[in-house]
Design brief:
With about 220 residues, the protein is α+β, with helices and mostly antiparallel strands. Helix content is about 20%, strand content about 35%. It has 4 helices and 11 strands. Strands 1, 2, 3, 4, 5, 6, 7, 8, 9, 10 and 11 form an 11-stranded mixed beta sheet that branches.
Length: about 220
């Protein structure tokens, strides 16, 4: 965990692919627990530390997670997310390149709860939710391509599912069709940056998470034009 920004109301951290944001059946220590411990120790806080999670990030994904340190900030951040006023950019690495190196993907997705996986379905499906993202190929190495992705909707596994649908599964993402896992067990999807108007101070917040400490990530980042 790396702290990228903090004040009295908000704390923004960058997680690794091994960290889990919320508790699950594994019983592994959560990112929430780690951030609470950090706050408790740094500010010498007695008793229970309040920490509100404003959004989710899949365990195998790295990058930015935003927490609220006060109930006021939590309710206001939730409203910013609901209105689409939190702008997040993701980076992803694939071994395939799309037909168009810049564009928009529009699909209808359904989540399979048992499999914890989303599928592209017909618009007529009663459970379908519209998923929209914009993308651009911004760099490449000999074998891989770096995507910059902006989400216009926030669906379950949206980027993973939509890229797999056009035969560009994310590197390491076995669940969505990539043939090999990554050494760290994660996938090459990184919540790169976020911008929003602070829910209390009203100042503009812009935060960027450095790429994972990985040779491919560092090499492909250097090639950005």
């Amino acid at each position: 965990m790396k702290v990228l920004y903090e004040d009295n109301h908000v704390i923004i951290v960058s997680k690794t692919t091994s960290e889990i944001v919320q508790g699950d059946k594994t019983g592994d220590k959560t990112l929430i627990d780690s951030v609470k411990e950090y706050i408790k120790e740094k500010y010498n806080k007695p008793g229970e530390v309040f920490l509100g999670l404003t959004h989710r990030l899949d365990r195998p994904t790295s990058g930015i997670v935003i927490f609220a340190r006060t109930s006021k900030a939590l309710s206001r951040m939730n409203e910013l997310f609901r209105k689409g006023d939190v702008h997040k950019t993701y980076w992803a690495i694939t071994s395939n390149i799309p037909k168009n190196q810049e564009g928009e993907l529009v699909n209808f997705l359904v989540k399979n709860e048992k499999q914890n996986k989303s599928y592209v379905v017909s618009e007529q499906n009663k459970d379908a939710k519209k998923a929209i993202l914009n993308y651009k190929i911004i760099s490449h190495s000999e074998r891989y391509y770096l995507w910059e992705i902006n989400l216009l909707t926030g669906r379950h596994h949206q980027i993973r599912c939509q890229l797999a649908k056009i035969d560009c599964p994310i590197k390491g993402d076995l669940k969505y069709g990539f043939p090999r896992s990554n050494p760290d067990g994660g996938i090459s999807l990184h919540a790169r940056s976020v911008s929003f108007i602070h829910p209390v101070s009203k100042k503009e917040i812009n935060v960027v998470a450095p790429v994972p400490d990985d040779n491919l990530w560092k090499a492909i980042e250097k090639n950005i034009q």
